[in-house]
Amino acid sequence: MDFLVLFLLYLALVLLGFVMICIGSKTHYLQGLISRGAQVFSYIIPECLQRAMLRVLHYLFHTRNYTFVVLHLILQGMVYTEYTWEIFGLCQQLEFSLYYLFLPYLLLIVNLLFFTLSCVTNPGTITKANELLFLQVYEFDEVMFPKNVRCPTCDLRKPARSKHCGVCNRCVHRFDHHCVWVNNCIGAWNTRYFLSYLFTLTASAATMAVVSTVFLVRLVVMSDVYLQTYVDDLGHLQVVDTVFLVQYLFLTFPRIVFLVGFVMVLSFLLGGYLCFCLYLAATNQTTNEWYKGDRAWCQHCPHVARPPAAEPQAYRNIHSHGLWSNLREIFLPATACYERKEK
């Protein structure tokens, strides 16, 4: 019982931490909190260990490497191995429909396809050859994306909605973010693959959670455990409740219950992130623009000429042209079609 409480508290803390990061990512409060926490740890952790940790973090998050790609495939392989090894066979014995049992495998195949496309597809790298083409795609808003700005690293004029990725060391058209899980930037030409990958990954986790949960519920119903009684620590006779059933199942099928908990939490996290990405797609925003939106003031743009007494202008999304037009822009990027015709 103590273990179950600790496990639930752990899950609650993970979810709370994720929500706090999502809510506080656009505020200076979270950044200040992290900064103060780092200062506290700097007094506790030895300097040599700090340098080693910084080198590891720099390698993982600031250089292109396949660490998270391999980790992704290992975790996915472990989950499906457990599903195949235990849940699939037991569900067959309980006469589950094969359509439901094979659905996670179908989603896995589709997910791996879009995962591969997200990894290998050019996100929209800006070069000398296509610089003029990209400059004509989006209008400059003169707030977040002023005209005539050059990337000091690539020595290119920066088209509207582009950004230089420090990890990949390139400027990307309609830059969204750099995803360590696919070891690639997410930009104009592979956002559609990334959204499809995220959707199928969420669907596969949710499907596996539903199938596993239904299996456990049917097992409890068939064994009539919920009709039994037990003696508690004080010697009193108690009716079996939900907490006791969860503990009983965890002791009987520990790997399956742990798998259910893992895919449930993963489904909520991925589902929340998927909803956020769909919101950005529907409003024709990128993660980069959403994050920087409330900080884009003209007085912070050194390349925009304005009188000293002029009022600062808040950022306004000028690229949204309706739901279907926004989605068509993501799933049928015009510049990608143009490039293929040129080739």
From TrEMBL:
The gene is ZDHHC4. It comes from the Eukaryota. It comes from Bison bison bison. It is an enzyme of class 2 (transferase). This is Palmitoyltransferase. GO terms for biological process: protein targeting to membrane. Its EC number is 2.3.1.225. GO terms for molecular function: protein-cysteine S-palmitoyltransferase activity. Signal peptide: none annotated. The chain crosses the membrane at residues 66-85, 97-117, 197-221, 256-282.
